[in-house]
Hints:
- By secondary structure, the protein is an alpha/beta fold.
- Helix content is about 35%, strand content about 20%.
- It has ten helices and twelve strands.
- The strands form four sheets. It has a six-stranded mixed beta sheet with strand order 9-2-1-12-11-10.
- Helix 1 packs antiparallel against helix 8.
- The protein is globular and about 60 Å long.
- The N and C termini lie far apart (about 50 Å).
Amino acid sequence: xxxxxxxxxxxxxxxxxxxxxxxxxxxxxxxxxxxxxxxxxxxxxxxxxxxxxxxxxxxxxxxxxxxxxxxxxxxxxxxxxxxxxxxxxxxxxxxxxxxxxxxxxxxxxxxxxxxxxxxxxxxxxxxxxxxxxxxxxxxxxxxxxxxxxxxxxxxxxxxxxxxxxxxxxxxxxxxxxxxxxxxxxxxxxxxxxxxxxxxxxxxxxxxxxxxxxxxxxxxxxxxxxxxxxxxxxxxxxxxxxxxxxxxxxxxxxxxxxxxxxxxxxxxxxxxxxxxxxxxxxxxxxxxxxxxxxxxxxxxxxxxxxxxxxxxxxxxxxxxxxxxxxxxxxxxxxxxxxxxxxxxxxxxxxxxxxxxxxxxxxxxxxxx
Length: 367
């Protein structure tokens, strides 16, 4: 549809009218959503959020028992042998996790692949679920005179602010998959057909194969429940003759994609979504298919080493590859302490996000 043909005032008027209709049925919708949540929780035998959190954390540790109950390696392991590293992946979001999962089997056994992540490993059940908790988990100090100064290096939520745009992203093992809504929309074909993209991306067959594989690993599903918002958007689309369809999300609904003992394809214990709505602050149920639940365990099973709380400060070329300098944030009884170090690798994959990777390149350029 040609968007230029749309009358903006007509769209706004329609949106306002739809909002009015929705508002007039708020009580009914609220009861419907509340009753739906109650039915799901009753079916699962889960009514206490505290119990849900404890269970989700216990499931995570049980799933990773073969690795000591966590994905993270001991920070001391990173400094024991800083020379014999084949690949360093900087960042553990979608780019870094998927690359690590695909490269690790090719290097295993005998060669080392390490993942460096500046954030901490956050267990399901430990995410903030109040406004106060989210503010406390910000990396920056948003309301101070020193705007966006770092206050918590291991904060889950990273805030990047400018006059034109504000970006909130995740800082933790799993990257922004921890704190986004996990919507997985396949781009239109003509996006990757544009000239700036490498030629290999112009092959729709190869791209489709990649998208299908990602959908399989992330266990993409349609949400089984309509909300007041989705119904309102559908009515607006219908009035504008724009077809609407639900988006695929990386969330486990009603146990789909899980085995009889609640394990997903990568062996991680998960529970069905309770429709609590906390996707964008971190799933405390274990239903959200974050990278902690799929690609990272897959990479770990093929020997990938993972070092959260390790912030890369600069990269520079050497005669044999690259030197990666970092700061490790070590948690102690008295708070956080810094430990600086460096590793040498034959290959470095920069996957710290569009903002983080750019910042790291610019900082490295100055040296």
